[in-house]
Amino acid sequence: MVPSKEVEKHKWKRKDKPEESIDNWLGAFAMLSTVIMEKFPEQGPALCKYNWVIYEENTRNGGTGWLNYDREFRQKMEQAPEMAWDCREIELWVQYMGNGSRPANSDTGFTRHKQARRYYFKQQLRPPFRGKPPQRGRGASQYRFNNNSCRLYNNGACLWGAVCKFAHNCSKCAGWHPAANCNKGNRTNKPTGTSVVSKQP
Predict the structure, then answer these.
(1) Is the sign of the CA dihedral 94, 99, 105, 111 positive or negative?
(2) Residue 96 contacts residue 61 (beta carbons within 8 Å)
(3) What is the pLDDT of residues 107-122, one digit of tens each?
């Protein structure tokens, strides 16, 4: 019969280790920071700065340089307690992060997400007009069907202002006012050609 200790040891070897990702690291470091700040509250700002340095390096370069730096940094701190969390260890920084530790063909999900957000906001911040502004009077109705009038502006609720990518003109007459304030579009056609017939006594 196999001893219980050997069984537990075998189970531990087969157990999958947590993924070495930035998300798992942030969760673990948050727990570590809480334990440290319970005894040393003054270490809070330094721990926050260290947390940001690791997170920023992973965002910028990806790879595993940030993870290797963190391991070596904490091992050195065990031997030299006078080290501070908010001071970078130059030798380790140059070794793991200074020359870039990201493989040429690697990419992180966060980087792709950031690029997608940058493209989205670039599209949102396009100027509203390219070329001539909308005309009034003759030709205005033709312009109305060719442009993209801002619906929020016409309802009086656009928060983008001058950087809105949609045209800030009336969707009814292409004038320089919201459709909610348009008088031309609200006019009702009165019946014409009617005559009043007086009754004969």
Answers:
(1) positive
(2) no
(3) 444 444 455 555 545 5
| Amino acid at position 80, single letter | A
Q: Which of 29-33, 99-103, 148-152 is the most confident on average?
A: 29-33
Q: Find out whether 143 and 159 touch, Cβ atoms under 8 Å.
A: no
Residue ranges of alpha helices (H) inside the chain are 4-14, 22-39, 44-61, 65-79, 90-93, 109-124, 140-146, 151-154
* SS3 of residue 158 by DSSP: coil
Query: In this structure, how many other beta carbons lie within 10 angstroms of the beta carbon of residue 151?
Result: 12
Contacts of 70 (CB under 8 A, 6+ apart): 25, 54
First to last CA, the chain: 126
Amino acid at 37: M
How does DSSP classify residue 143? H
- Residue 114 corresponds to which tokens in the numbers above? 């950031």
